[in-house]
Amino acid sequence: MIKIKSKKQGAELTSIKFNGKEMLHQGEIWNRHAPILFPIVGKLKNNETIINGKTYHMGQHGFARDEEFVELEKNDVEHKYLLESNKETLKMFPFKFQLYVSHKVHENSVITTYEVVNKDEKQMIFGIGGHPAYICDYSSGKYSIEFQKQENNIKFLKLDNGLIMEKEAKNILENNSIKLNKESFIDDAIIVKNINSNKVYLKENDKKILEFDFTGFPYLGMWAKIGAPFVCIEPWMNTADKVDTDGKLQSKENIITLEPREKFKCSYKVLFFDPVPKNS
Fold first, then answer.
1. Class of the CATH domain delimited by 2-272
2. What is the rounded CA–CA span in Å between residue 14 and residue 26?
3. What are the sequence ranges of the domains in the chain?
4. CB–CB of 176/190 below 8 Å?
5. 3-state secondary structure (DSSP) of residue 17
6. Which residue among 22, 26, 215, 228 is buried most deeply as judged by most CB within 10 Å?
7. CB 202 within 8 Å of CB 136
């Protein structure tokens, strides 16, 4: 049985209790739980970007996570929110939009859905992603993130002060898994692309804690504050700027384009597993 809590600020999930056990980070060390990344993912070079010839300033991961959403629905099964562009968002991102966020409980899983509607009269470009943090003592060396399918062509992206470098990071897959330990996030997030799998599993030793389905997302990020009791598993449609970016938002890899009145939808699903009895 799953019970969820969320808040209007950022339309953010703040609690996922599975059979009474809290699964989501409660903000003790990092002051977020499961923020949405919109209208950019990651960092802009110098915190600025060029859109249609004009320069705009925006902090890492965009503004949606700090905006007050309108609550559309809230019951035991689904929490649904809406953010519409306003005079403040237009200063950072010159497009009229609607952003719907839904968190829906289905049996032992939670499905988070993002829907973006272009309400402008011009083409809109943007990025989007998720950043949920699950309780996990990753520094203990007992945890790993295992890919669903064999990953022969996966690429690990290397960061320099939050920007993507041309040189790739070392491939740290062992038996198709990323083994987590206290050194895992010394160099910032682990980011992968060219992924064959649609799912990964967070495991404690050989026991599955959760299954994370990111079907349709070309990137997956993993991150935690050093020594923190959580790990973020992050489905991304695009990434931070590259170190050698020309500064234009449209130059971002896999930027999403929407024509007027068009809609874009994506979702990720997290399935939680019952603990295995010790005497089994």
1. mainly beta
2. 7
3. 2-272
4. no
5. strand
6. 228
7. yes
